[in-house]
Amino acid sequence: MATIDSLRTLVIEQLRDIYDAEHRLTKAIPKLRRKAENEELREALDTHLSETEEHIARLDQVFAAMDEKAKGKPCAGIKGIIDEGKEHVGEDYDEDDLRDAVIIGAAQRAEHYEIAAYGTVIAHMRLLGEDEAIALLEETLEEEKACDRTLTDIAERVVNVEAAEDGSEEAEKAPRRASGRRQKSAGVSRLSTAADARTRARARKR
After folding, report:
1. 3-state secondary structure the chain
2. Cα 184 to Cα 182: distance, rounded to the nearest angstrom
3. pTM of the prediction?
4. In angstroms, rounded to a whole number, what is the distance separating the alpha carbons of residues 26 and 110?
5. Which one has a higher pLDDT value, 139 or 188?
6. pLDDT, tens digit, 9 for 90 and up, residues 120-137
7. Predicted local confidence at residue 206, as pLDDT
8. Which of 159, 160, 119, 174 is nearest to 142 (CA)?
9. Half-sphere exposure of 168 (CA within 13 A, CB side)
10. How many C-beta atoms lie closer than 10 Å to residue 63's C-beta?
11. Is residue 100 within 8 Å of residue 166, measured between CB atoms?
């Protein structure tokens, strides 16, 4: 565990956390992409995978500008988000739209983590006057925000709507099934009543 003895040391530790997070996401994003069915969602994930690889390259430049070795440290935050997303995406879904909605949620949790992480380290770097590094990180931050907006658009315009329609269709089927059961039950009851009447009539004749 590092000893944080200055704001500069804190910034380096934050960068190493982000560096590990980006590397983990280059492995996690393709797994989400393989599970996705919506074509727009798949394209968005493909695009962001390419961006994530570029984010790593920029971080290499940031470390170099600060005369530090580019290396990561285990990022517990993104690891937890990825593990949670893997668990939820791996559940059984009746419709692909429902899984796609979960994939978007998992991806956006990661985006929000990164947006917060980059925003914090940029704010600290401004105090250190690391202008070259800040310019690189701000470019990445804008791409993270743009990805989040794209995912929101796909969710609100297509995926969530279709997932909601799937639920509505299932809800409509339930009353029909219940009505069918009631009609069948009523039919059985009428048959039973008619049989009882015939039995009583034969008894009176005897």
Report:
1. CCCCCCHHHHHHHHHHHHHHHHHHHHHHHHHHHHHCCCHHHHHHHHHHHHHHHHHHHHHHHHHHHCCCCCCCCCCHHHHHHHHHHHHHHCCCCCCHHHHHHHHHHHHHHHHHHHHHHHHHHHHHHHHHCCHHHHHHHHHHHHHHHHHHHHHHHHHHHHHHHHHHHHHHHHHHHHHHHHHHHHHHHHHHHHHHHHHHHHHHHHHHHC
2. 5
3. 0.80
4. 12
5. 139
6. 999 999 999 999 999 999
7. 46
8. 119
9. 6
10. 18
11. no
The two tokens of residue 12 are: 């380096």
* 65 neighbors 8 (Cβ within 8 angstroms): no
Residues in the chain: 206
Q: Based on the number of CB atoms within 10 Å of its own CB, is 68 exposed (0-12), middle (13-18) or buried (19 or more)? A: middle
Task: Give me the amino acid identity at 198.
Answer: R
Cα–Cα distance measured from residue 140 to residue 52, given in angstroms and rounded to the nearest whole number: 9
Q: What tokens does 205 get?
A: 């004749």
Residue carrying the six token digits 């910034």: 11
Residue 123 in tokens: 């704010």
Instruction: Give the closest residue to 14 by CA, choosing from 86, 66, 81.
Output: 66
Cα separation, 172 vs 165, whole angstroms = 10
